[in-house]
Amino acid sequence: MTWLRNVRERLHTHPAWVRLMLSLSVIGPGLVTANADNDPGGITTYSTVGATFGYDMLWGLILVTISLVVIQEMAARLGTVTGRGLADLIREEFGVKMAFLAMLTLLLANLATTASEFAGMAASLEIFGVPRWVTIPITAVVVWWSVTAGSYRRLERIFLILAGAFITYILSGLLIRPDWGMVLRQAVVPRFHWTPSFMLLFVGMVGTTITPWMQFYLQASVVDKGLTVQDLHYVRWDVTIGSLWSDLVSFFIIVTTAATLFPHGIHIQTAEDAARALEPFAGAYATILFAVGLFAAGFLAAAILPLSTAYALSEAFGFERSVNRSWKEAPVFFWLFTSILGIGALLPLIPGLSLVRMMLFAQDVNGFLLPVILIFMLRLVNNRRLMGTHTNGPVYNVIVWVTVLFLVLLTLVLLGSTILPLGR
Amino acid sequence: MSVVPEIHASRLLAKTVIDAKGRKLGRVVEIYVQLDKDELPPVVALEVRSRRHPDLPSPLYIPWRTVQVLVRQYLSLTVPAEALSKAAPVAPEASWLPIRRTLFDKQIVDLNGLRVVRVNDLKFNEVGGGLRLVAVDVGLRGLLRRLGLRPLVHWAEARLHLSLPDTLIRWQDVQRIELEGDGRLHLGVPYERLARLRPADLADILEALHTRERTAVLGALTPAIAAETLTEVEPEAREQILARLTPERVLSLLESLPADEAADILSQLRADRAAALLGAMKPEQGEQVRSFLEYEEDTAGRLMSREFIFFPQTQTADETIAALRQLKPPANSTYYLYVVDQAGHLLGTVSLRDLVVAAPSCRLEEIMRTKVIAVHVDDDRQTVGEMLAKYDLLALPVLDEDERLVGVVSLPEHADEIFSAERRRGGLW
């Protein structure tokens, strides 16, 4: 039952400045989870948003941030009040068939995301001329081995620091001196292009910011930390600050790419294209900085995703779980972990596939599937028997339902557009 | 009357009920069993819901004795629906257990296998003239059956020669953990068997339960058992449990523990909480615990227990044996007897064997072994483990800075603490 213990341990392994920041913000799972959000898929999506549509989607990010804060708070509240994981609650409250549906959704989304992490690592090393069929098998074995042999925590420290490279987007964004007036205007005035590419990217942006797996991960870490209703106040702060911080980085990625790549009409086809947004800050070292950050973020997520998926599935269906147990004691758990990691690593090896496209597509899959998980969460969080006085208020319900309906609507329109050509 | 020799709850729940006149009354949505302390619970009633018959109450409770026969997906009754609605009880009785709501998909404790498992399905057998709940199904087969994938199971068995065994737990070995609204254990469920488990096994089970259930189970145990169980629980889970217990309860648990173990638990709490608890303890016990807290975590000083047996060097073998008869010390503390001088310095050790074979008037200083292997209070856990292993010892005396004997680390008592680090460092979570 005790899982994600490393969230606590992690706090001791952060560099000093992160520790300071964490202690200022009351330290917690919310911040850690939200920042796990800036994985290769996320970076690629935000970069593409800025490079393809300039500042046009900024308003969307602002709205998504509001949803993110609300949804993460909801997940954390579910965990603190019930003391149970999300998979567990779904199984106990909705029965085995609904649990199967939820787990199938999570599995599909997480397989896509895992594939996107490997694609990200492959893309980062392609900058240095390392082909993907070399990068992926090696990293997959290293990830698998480090998790099962228990040396993951040491590697995690290194990669956590390296993944911090993306904070330079903020510096880059400030150094470019974009037209702030325009940025602010675009951030509040909605602009919608009724084209499939815009809508698909929009779904991807929502899907990478608010992912199904984060809901399971956050709730589990809250439960694992043993947080109770008395801690709810701190948990709220933690989650809010975490979400805002993570989206601040996202905001600057869009701003920098919109200011550097969009005017030149550069479409992101490889990681190298995306890296150029860091040039105002890092100059000639921009590509290296970007590649290192992308690889590190990919590595972290490539370990966490298969693991948390195997965990949630085992929780829902009652298999023995925990990496502290042996293969013999928890065979299903280990097989799940291994197969998710393996399939995730194989997908980007399909010949002729663009790694960037693959990453974008994975975020779309997350966006398409997110409503399923959100509806389960809404049903649970509004259950008085479970939540007592801590059910959702009307504003929260409206925000989450709007998110759900918006995603469903976009999904339907996109489905329709494949049949009836839309826009141009 | 035998409706069916055996059936799973998932299949019974899918049936449609037909009354004696051939009217379809609706589908079975719940099965009630009668809880009886020593017997396998018999099925007493079915709950049927249907919107098709406005003249009948909904839900409709059907006594199992009116069920006549099971044919394909239908259960037929011996009476017409009208007779039923007059004769049938309006509400289920308190001793009836609705198995779908209380057992399906829930976690239960397997008292025989000592693990926490999730219920996938339930099995009923014809026993003693009634259909009784005999086992819960926690395996993959039950899971697939619930998902409506029975054909897949048959196919896998016929074509792939895979055998998917039924993983059944006898009802007698099932411990339900049911909570009241206020988070306490439901009193209608007997918990004696759970409370009779060994603390180490109970600790494993607690770790696998949800936080609220953990706290409730621990809250229902006697302070002595609860305290002992708590010391066996992994530190992370322990912290969670303690965070949810009331300060009074934590205090009563700490007070029923030896000082070294109480110190261990306190040292893992938040400083302010630990200080408050320490202040609230009985003065002399608080003092003892505090003296342990002076030693750093993971040192021999923290590991050791202060209860050990020592004798002055001038005492004779005979006197010593007499003293031991009087003391009746537990086996753990009699591997070695320690011989100390008046200032408390360790002079040597005597084993029970040495004592028994020695001449009765022999003084301990004549038979003791003077080459004593000992550790100091600030030696770390690894050193302690290595010394025990290297010299094949069952217990090690612990000395303070002035070479005085202050405690003993014994392998049977402290093994998990001495060697737990390696295990815990292994995993990711």
Descriptive report:
The complex is a heterodimer of chains A (424) and B (429). By secondary structure, chain A is an all-alpha fold. Residues 1-27 of chain A have low confidence and may be disordered. Chain A has helices at residues 6-13, 16-24, 29-35, 40-53, 58-82, 86-126, 132-149, 152-163, 168-176, 180-188, 196-209, 212-224, 232-260, 271-275, 279-282, 286-317, 331-346, 355-381, 384-387, 394-419. Chain A has a single domain (6-388), classed as Sodium/glucose cotransporter. The two termini of chain B are 55 Å apart. Helices cover 38% and strands 22% of the residues of chain B. In chain B, the strands form 5 sheets. In chain B, strands 2, 3, 4, 5, 6, 7 and 8 form a 7-stranded mixed sheet that branches. Chain B is of the alpha+beta class and 429 residues long. Among the domains of chain B are: 6-94, PRC-barrel domain (SH3 type barrels); 310-421, CBS-domain.
Please summarize what this structure is:
Helices cover 76% and strands 0% of the residues of chain A. With 424 residues, chain A is mainly α.
Please estimate the helix content of chain B. Answer: 25-40%
CATH topology of the domain at 310-421 in chain B: CBS-domain
What is the domain tally of chain A?
1
CATH superfamily of chain A: Sodium/glucose cotransporter
Number of continuous helical runs of chain B = 20
Distance between the termini of chain A: 53 Å
Key structural traits:
heterodimer, A: 424 residues, mainly alpha, Sodium/glucose cotransporter, globular, B: 429 residues, SH3 type barrels, seven-stranded mixed β-sheet, four-stranded antiparallel β-sheet, 20 strands, elongated
Secondary structure elements and pairings:
The complex is a heterodimer of chains A (424) and B (429).
Chain A: H1 6-13, H2 16-24, H3 29-35, H4 40-53, H5 58-82, H6 86-126, H7 132-149, H8 152-163, H9 168-176, H10 180-188, H11 196-209, H12 212-224, H13 232-260, H14 271-275, H15 279-282, H16 286-317, H17 331-346, H18 355-381, H19 384-387, H20 394-419
Chain B: E1 6-8, H1 9-12, E2 16-18, E3 24-34, E4 43-49, E5 60-63, E6 67-71, E7 74-77, H2 81-87, E8 96-98, H3 99-102, E9 107-110, E10 115-118, E11 121-127, E12 130-137, H4 140-146, H5 150-159, E13 168-170, E14 174-176, H6 192-195, H7 199-208, H8 211-220, H9 223-232, H10 235-244, H11 247-255, H12 259-267, H13 271-280, H14 283-293, H15 300-303, E15 310-312, H16 317-327, E16 337-340, E17 346-350, H17 352-357, H18 364-367, E18 375-376, H19 381-390, E19 395-399, E20 405-410, H20 411-425
Parallel strand pairs in B: 2-7, 15-16, 18-19
Antiparallel strand pairs in B: 1-11, 2-3, 3-4, 3-8, 4-5, 6-7, 9-10, 9-14, 11-12, 12-13, 16-17, 19-20
Helix pairs in contact in B: 7-9, 8-10, 9-11, 12-14, 19-20
